[in-house]
């Protein structure tokens, strides 16, 4: 009978699976160290999604953040590689996406509100003709909308 092995920690097993999926040994560490490498403000708005060769693809929440990260690209690559067991990333490729933090729930258009009962025609004889004509036009439009 074979001697039983000690159970492997789940983190190590997941890292091995991610490394196999990515095809690069040690690549799973990128996701573990991302937040420390870029800081909490950037980590909330950008997240690594794929390693293609030595280019890390990063989903970014908004266009202004994408522009900012393009300017910080070299520093991010350096900080990331310093935290990895061995340097794996040479460049970053940013993809504009909507993050969970910035995504707004889809709003359903509100149905048009019903008009209140239009007022009865008032005696507007004392008003100048142009003003009276404007009020008559508004009253007619209100009555038409109330009939819908």
Question: TL;DR of this structure?
Answer:
This protein folds into two domains: 12-96, 2-Layer Sandwich (GMP Synthetase, Chain A, domain 3), CATH 3.30.300; 113-148, no CATH class.
Q: In the residues, how many domains can be counted? A: 2
In the CATH hierarchy, the third-tier topology of the largest domain is known as GMP Synthetase, Chain A, domain 3
Distance between the first and last residues' Cα: 84 Å
Q: Indicate the percent of residues in helices.
A: 40-55%
Shape: elongated
Q: Could you characterize the architecture of this molecule?
A:
With 148 residues, the chain is an alpha+beta fold. It folds into two domains: 12-96, GMP Synthetase, Chain A, domain 3 (2-Layer Sandwich), CATH 3.30.300; 113-148, no CATH class. The protein has five helices and three strands; from the N terminus they run αααββαβα. Strands 1-2-3 form a three-stranded mixed beta sheet. Helix 2 crosses helix 4. It is elongated. The model has no long low-confidence stretch (mean pLDDT 79).
Draw up the topology in text:
Elements: H1 10-22, H2 28-38, H3 40-45, E1 46-52, E2 55-60, H4 63-83, E3 91-96, H5 129-147
List its traits.
single chain, 148 residues, alpha+beta, GMP Synthetase, Chain A, domain 3, 2 domains, three-stranded mixed beta sheet, 5 helices, 47% helix
